[in-house]
Amino acid sequence: MRVHTLDLQFQNTPGLIAAYLVESGHELALIETGPGSTLPALQQALQLKGFQPKDVRHVLVTHIHLDHAGAAGWWAQQGAQVYCHPSAARHLVDPSRLVDSARRVYAEQMDTLWGAMLPAPEDNVTALADGESIHIGETQITAWDTPGHARHHHAFVMGDACFTGDVAGLRLGPQPYLSVTSAPPQFDPPAYIASVDRLLAAKFSRLYLTHFGEVTEVENHLSGYRRRIEEVHQKVRGWISQGLSAEAIETHYREDEKALATATGLTPKDWQRHEIINSTQMCAAGVRLYVEKNASI
């Protein structure tokens, strides 16, 4: 069994979005598809590994945000079976509501950023419940329900490894800065921490982050990320209690995160890479929305 990291070159920038190709026996599985806009880069990355799209018959997506599953419908239309969370399946079959919602946010940038999200034939979409598995050659891949970033989020477990989607956060390569993936509207800190604790208890030897790459210092990474989730939650809760506006909260959030990133040695160029894939404006909005909806917690 081999795992290949495929860099999707999102916005012509390396190291932001990964898809993972699992090669076992004579079968292939693709974990994450990236957005429709990176489909040509994904096809090219496959070809560089010696494969064609027709060779991939199994596709797994951790959740249906466009940076993770935007191209899933294309793969299903090529005949691949797409596996997802039960709450995600209907949105892959009919992505119109998802696309309309994203277009309201991204407006004229929608097509450039994300490309097309095609509908998947219903027969080519399989929902996996928590603990259900598929086999790729001799390899078993098991879905774990891991809410917190989104309610429809799976991590995929393969032996002592875990493909984490967004549940283990964002760390671009070997850089120490950990960015909390808290996009609205489903960011939920208690659920998030419970999911991270589930990963911690499993004592995986490595994680595969969609954003971005392999992590081998698993306990340190997950423990640090657990602290970061609580940190941003409490900061935003404090700012709201002080009566700060949404705009002021976004400014404070960006300044605090940039200062933290800089203190870890992040360069201005690498900070911009983080803002491309996990903008502080978006993250601040996600945390604020949770706090406003759960003011008594």
UniProtKB/TrEMBL annotation:
SMART domains noted in UniProt: Lactamase_B (SM00849)
Domain of life: Bacteria
Keyword set, alphabetical order: Hydrolase
Start and end residues of each Metallo-beta-lactamase domain: 16-211
Keyword set includes Transmembrane: no
InterPro entries found in the cross-reference section: Metallo-B-lactamas, NDM-1-like, RibonucZ/Hydroxyglut_hydro, ST1585_MBL-fold
Gene Ontology molecular function terms on file: hydrolase activity
Pfam families xref list: Lactamase_B
Signal peptide span: none
PANTHER family: METALLO BETA-LACTAMASE SUPERFAMILY LIPOPROTEIN (PTHR42951:SF22), METALLO-BETA-LACTAMASE DOMAIN-CONTAINING (PTHR42951)
Name the UniProt record assigns to this protein: Glyoxylase-like metal-dependent hydrolase (Beta-lactamase superfamily II)
Species, as recorded: Prosthecobacter dejongeii
